[in-house]
Each structure stands twice: as structure tokens, then as C-alpha cells.
Write a structure and sequence with these properties.
Length: 272
């Protein structure tokens, strides 16, 4: 063991640390995009190729080698937009800022998640609307404008029973609580169960006229529901809510297809 340490130079340690950090940052940039699924696929193929060589499985090893060769040619063509984005981020130096943005997203998502967990536990009804590309000024300009930091305590106090604002919705963007006491259009879906209340119908309705995302807490059932693109999914798990919130507040372009794909995957995982 001592002989091995003698062979390691300080330059080797620096090499390893730099490569580790660069790879970590690149994966951070790819997280949440289609390219990340490609990386996972390549890792699986690489592991299969390595295993087949170790076990001396010639046919499988040759087949995996052919797949890797084709992938090297196909990747730059199929994932050109994602690769260009990574290079642009490298040029702007944003690769070094990603960790800070992710940490901020985790913090805000944690505040909202804790508020939702408390409210569903106490059977406090709530409706949170996450604004995306479509502006929702038509719905909040007649409400109570707050422009406040997103905190667990503020969200709970807004929806506390007998608070004048608790019956309306809260509209947020990626940095603050825009307004409270907002009244939204009800869904026009006539196929909804008659047991779906007004709060859920309003949360669903705003997603039919915009690209917003609604999170609804049911005071009767003590559960959190998600509405997006006119689709309602009930009884979300706490970790699913947190994951969606982190993705929203990460500061990424929420118009990108990968964001919608992530939400759809979460909805499908609920079995709705």
C-alpha cells in the first residue's frame, strides 16, 4: 500500500479532482433534459459491454460495440439543441453558477413543501398557482398584490381559516409570491365528478386557459392534487411534489419540452 502512494503525484490528484468537478457540472447542466436520459442509456450499454468482455461473450461484446459506434455518430445530430445549450452555458460561465441556483431551488421548494404538508395535515384548503410563460396579470391585478418572499409561514397564514384571503388562490413565479386572494375561472369540463369542489375546479380552470401549474390542498381529504394542461391528478406524494417544485424553481426554461415530460412522467407514476 505504501508503494502505491509513492507512485501517486500531487498532479495526479489535481487531475482527478478537476475532471470530477467538470463532469459533475456538465451532468448538472444536462439534468432534466432529454440528453440526461441518453447519458443513463450510454452508461447501461457501457456496463453491458464491459461485462461481456470480462465474461468473454464475443457476440454480445461485438453487438454492444456496434451500438456505441452508431451512438457516437447519432448523438451530435439528435441532441444538437442540448449540446449547443451546454456549450453556451460553458461560454457564459453559468456552469459554475448552477450549484447556487440548484441550492436556491431546493430551499424554496422545501418552504412550499413544508407548507403543503402542514396544511394537508391540518385539513386547511389551499390553491397555489405557479406562473410560467403565460402571464396571469388578468387574475391577480384585482387581488391583493404582495411581491413577497416565498416562506412556509406566509403561505400557511394566507390560507389560515378566517383569513380574508384564504378563499382565493395564491399566484407565484420563480422568485416570489405575486398576489393572494386571486379568483380564477372554473373548469368547463362537464365530465368531472360532482365531488370535485370549487377550489379544484378553479385550479383546473386556470390550466385550461394558460400554461400555469396548480397545486391544490383538499381540506376534506387532506391530500395534494396537481393540475396542468387541463388534467387533474389527485393525492400526490410529498416527494413527487418536492421534485416538481425543485424543477420549477431551478431557473431553467420552463417552456422546454423536458419540463413538460417530467411533469407527465410524475402524473403517470400516480396511476391517474
Amino acid at each position: 500500500m505504501t508503494e502505491i502512494f509513492k507512485l501517486i503525484r500531487w498532479q495526479d490528484v489535481v487531475d482527478i479532482l478537476v475532471i470530477y468537478y467538470v463532469v459533475y457540472r456538465l451532468l448538472s447542466l444536462l439534468y432534466g433534459t432529454r440528453a440526461m436520459q441518453l447519458v443513463k442509456g450510454l452508461l447501461v450499454i457501457g456496463m453491458l459491454a464491459a461485462s461481456s468482455r470480462l465474461l468473454n461473450l464475443g457476440t454480445i461484446s461485438w453487438f454492444m460495440g456496434q451500438i456505441l459506434s452508431i451512438t457516437v455518430i447519432a448523438v451530435p445530430i439528435v441532441f444538437q439543441p442540448e449540446l449547443r445549450k451546454v456549450l453556451e452555458e460553458l461560454g457564459r460561465g453559468n456552469i459554475w453558477k448552477r450549484h447556487k441556483a440548484q441550492k436556491r431551488a431546493e430551499t424554496i421548494a422545501g418552504e412550499i413543501s413544508k407548507a403543503l404538508i402542514y396544511m394537508k395535515g391540518q385539513r386547511i384548503g389551499a390553491l397555489l398557482v405557479l406562473q410560467r410563460g403565460t402571464g396571469l396579470k388578468d387574475f391577480w391585478r384585482t387581488a391583493v398584490e404582495l411581491n413577497a418572499d416565498i416562506t412556509q409561514e406566509l403561505l400557511i397564514s394566507i390560507f389560515w381559516v378566517n383569513n380574508p384571503l384564504h378563499d382565493g388562490a395564491v399566484i407565484l413565479d420563480q422568485s416570489k409570491i405575486i398576489a393572494a386572494g386571486c379568483y380564477l375561472p372554473l373548469t368547463e369540463d362537464s365530465d368531472l365528478s360532482r365531488w370535485i369542489g370549487t377550489r379544484h375546479r378553479a385550479g383546473l380552470g386556470v390550466t385550461e386557459v394558460s400554461d400555469a401549474i396548480s397545486l391544490i390542498v383538499s381540506e376534506e381529504r387532506g391530500e395534494v392534487s396537481l393540475a396542468i394542461n387541463g388534467h387533474l391528478s389527485r393525492n400526490l406524494k410529498d416527494d413527487q411534489v418536492h421534485k416538481l417544485l425543485v424543477h420549477y424553481f431551478s431557473g431553467e426554461d420552463t417552456e422546454q419540452q423536458s419540463f413538460l415530460d417530467t411533469l407527465r412522467d410524475e402524473i403517470k407514476s400516480l396511476g391517474s
